[in-house]
């Protein structure tokens, strides 16, 4: 029979880090100087503007997904902790009743 092990502190830490990353991505100002003078060629400016527009759209989606993963990690830690506490209580009750 295999054993299940987990690190509740690491799961909680992961959840917190994912939430921080999500917040950071949402609050980033993605605008940069995309003038011909800065990039030297109009086609480069167009390509960079296209990239920035797509990045802005996808950054919001990525930030949302990271926040959801943070929630899942926190809920997993909570679920494992609750299951562990319930099992410990049942073992104590069984020992007392024996």
Describe the protein's topology.
Layout: H1 8-27, H2 36-39, H3 42-97
Helix pairs in contact: 1-3
Note the main sheet. Answer: none
Strand content: under 5%
- Outline, from the CA principal axes? rod-shaped
Order of helices and strands: HHH
The residue-averaged pLDDT reads: 83
Query: In total, how many domains does the architecture comprise?
Result: 1
Fold and architecture overview:
- The two termini are 25 Å apart.
- The protein is mainly α and 98 residues long.
- The protein has helices spanning 8-27, 36-39, 42-97.
- Helices cover 82% and strands 0% of the residues.
- The chain has one domain (2-97).
Short description:
The protein is 82% helix and 0% strand. It is built from three helices and no strands. It is rod-shaped, with a radius of gyration of 24 Å.
Annotation keywords:
single chain, 98 residues, mainly alpha, 0% strand
């Amino acid at each position: 029979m295999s054993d299940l092990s987990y690190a509740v502190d690491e799961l909680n830490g992961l959840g917190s880090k994912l939430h921080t990353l999500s917040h950071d991505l949402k609050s980033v100002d993605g605008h940069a100087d995309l003038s011909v003078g800065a990039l030297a060629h109009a086609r480069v400016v167009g390509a960079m503007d296209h990239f920035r527009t797509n990045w802005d759209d996808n950054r919001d989606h990525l930030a949302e997904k990271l926040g959801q993963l943070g929630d899942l990690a926190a809920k997993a830690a909570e679920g494992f902790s609750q299951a562990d506490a319930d099992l410990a209580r049942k073992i104590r009750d069984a020992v007392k009743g024996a």
